[in-house]
Queue: 4 jobs
Job 1
Amino acid sequence: MADHKNNKDRRINEKFLALPNSVLDSLAFRSLTGNETKVFIHLCRKYNGTNNGNLAIPYNTVEKEYNLSRQTLYKCLKSLEEKGFIETSRQGRKGVLSLYAVTIFAVDEYLKNGYPIHDLKPTTQAKHSWKYYNDQLKAKSNNT
């Protein structure tokens, strides 16, 4: 009988990000630029299972970690929102970060001192808004 490793040896001791194949295989995801993909993965990575809608991406973090300018980050966030991968859950202002929700996960209720921290209603299922953009891309490719 073959000698099998103990299951404890195969455990992953660090956090990881699992993206559904339906997202990764879609035309919409493949149409993202490299910078848009970086920003999307950064936001997904911040999701811990209970904080969708409370995902922030500070400019100084992006400049240091990903070498992106403020303008590039702004363009990426705007494009990701137009393509349906993210939603703005709270618009930022001076001294207050904008918050985002990733549409591949359900929006979570997030309270601070008993008050909601963002403007989105909690959901039990993911919106998958990116699928509408994916359908548009499929229609365009079928017409050509």
Note: Helices lie at 21-24, 27-30, 34-46, 59-66, 70-82, 130-143.
Job 2
Amino acid sequence: MGKFSIVGLKLVLTVILAGTLFVQLIMIPMILIHDSSGNMNDRLIQSSFLSYLFLAGLIIETCVFCVWKLATRVKRGTVFDPASLGFVRPIILAFAVGSIGTFALAAIFATTTEIAPGIVLLVGGAGLLMVGISIIVLVLRQLLEQATMTEAQAAELRTELGGVI
């Protein structure tokens, strides 16, 4: 990645983080303050959705932090270090937790007649998408692990070759 790519990525990550914090710190409390007291079923749906939004914010913030650290490692040329793997695992876990939360939200939506079945299906599909993303990141982590091992072997061979010459 070039310098401009990393700067562009960090700019996008900053905007995403700011938007997520805005939703968590401003929007969700505003909705709670201006809550119209409805029946118990409406409050269950609203509180479930707002809890899900807060969880989604935590997941996004975790991913932004880890991607930021990985981009910094790319810029420094240290991405093929075993320490980089420690920034990939939280992304996998965040998406796994997010998929569980999404499936739970779909289950809550399915218990009411006020939410259309198509919406429940869309939310369940989003949960399945998150499972897929988690698996893709897991595969990418394994590729990073292999590249890290290859980099270490190459450095060892360079050292041996330097000793021979």
Note: The chain is about 85% helix and 0% strand.
Job 3
Amino acid sequence: MITVVTAPTIRAVTLEEARQQLRLDAHDEDMLLAVHLDAAQAELERLADLRLCPQTLAMTLDAWPDEITVPVRPVTIAAITCTAAGGATVTLPEGDYIARVQHGFMRIRPNAGTSWPTLAPDGQITITLSAGFAEGHPDLAIARAAILVKTASLFENREGATCLAFDTLAGQLAARWV
């Protein structure tokens, strides 16, 4: 399970950028436009397993798998903690695990010669993650374009309509399993 610890403070696309896309000069529909921006970003993030804007996430597990796959991207590991035998919370040293991006997703496994610590009977593992694209990342440009076309489609077709341009751009961002 992944939860948001620190929510993003910005959108991937600003209200001003959306206004420019729609050629709107007035601000009287900003509230509706903001709702459409948030919906488009949420849909893109869900479809492509992305977190676009900087945020902190926590992934919790009840047991150690051989390899942990973080189901969202892009992420870096801030910390891995667990409730070890005896009930103490232990932070794993970075040298005890290997984290690599493979096929778009972060995969974590014990380093050679180490194993995961033994958990308490009701112990839990928490992986704290820093998520979001760095400014200037090429995939962020594709994501912004997708959000803009989806927002425009939602705004102009208020009864709902398919947006093929959005679907195409979202497909470019979806993780590829090879």
Note: The chain has a mean pLDDT of 93.
Job 4
Amino acid sequence: MKKIFSLGLLLFVASFSYAQAEKVEDAKQLYNSNFRKLQLYTYYYKDINNHYAPFIGKWIYQNGNQTFVIQLWKETKVDYTAEAPRYYTDELRGHYKLVQNYGQPNEQIVYTSEINIGTSPTPWSTVLTSARVIDNYRMSGTIYDVTGQVNPAYPTGVRGQLEMKINSTNPNTAQWKVTLPQGMRGMDQPSTFTIPTNVTLTKTN
């Protein structure tokens, strides 16, 4: 009986220790193909060097009396432990809107990403996700254009590949580019963006 108890205690301690085996690495290692991952650990890819900081805040692009507004923030330790391999990561996230007469008393929202997903009651927590910040000035990620008419077969709208590059000589401006991801697409899959796809943004805060 004592042997069985000791074995059970040993297995409990071992499983507890394994669950605690978390290792913190720089966020850039998540996409580094040369980075050797050990199965012993659950990795946390953390924004150790604050590469995300220059992107965080409100950015705008003005076209006539309409203003495209993108708000970016950092979400820390996003849980991907249900995936294989298990990991956590810091991410940039965001929402956007198009505003008529921005900042004026007669301001009116033309569209916004802060809506429900398709016809579901679940709101978008974010329409932009990026854990890939190459340095202080460049990041890439995924963005969903949810502004057009929703096809029930594709409730997430048009999926785009986002590239954002901050001007190193003027960090209050950045080039914003959105393209369709490479690869095969369904014939009926939406592929026309409503949101701006190649503009210069200005940071306002």
Note: Confidence is low (pLDDT under 50) at residues 1-18.
